[in-house]
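Good morning C.,

I know you're traveling, so I'll keep this short. The sequence:
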Amino acid sequence: MPKLEKTRKSISNCVTQPIVNLLARTPLTPNAVTWLGFCINIGAAVLVVTEHLFAAGFVVLIAGLFDMLDGALARVTNRVTRFGGILDSTLDRLSEAIVLLALLAVFAREQQVAESVLAGTALLGSLMVSYLRAKMEGLGIECKVGLFTRPERVIVLALGLLLSQFDYALVTALAVITFFSFFTAGQRLYYAWRQTRN
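The tokens, ready to paste straight into the viewer:
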């Protein structure tokens, strides 16, 4: 496992383990936690569309925490299923898309063309990162590489929303997501080429 992935796992375990231990004592299933995280992301998108961006930043962070909890809960309670993994991946993609589309809608409403294009490009980049991993793993290639994965995107987007009262903070966050998402997609594509060239 790459060093960066080990670091991510270590941080994730520190954050989620106490909460997972608590959730394991409740009737909540991992799939229910997945759906709850998705619903929280819808709430974040509503806050974005109504231009409560600071509040949306907090909600995006909370939703990001739920994104980490479902898989950890499944492992702790021995309820890991193939469908649970598919549901988690699907709703993660939808969650990210909904919030970015909400931002695109706000920019379009304000007739901010460049910002609208940036939000759309950030969405495209984030989907490419996820697609490449899914495609490789579908071909039996383990894909743990990549500098800028979903947790990093969630944190940067949340920071952009929280600091949106400052000029260009949100645009800067979207630019960072866009650049590093395409950079990560390039990393994964290169890794796939190396793994499949023989």
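Safe travels,
E.
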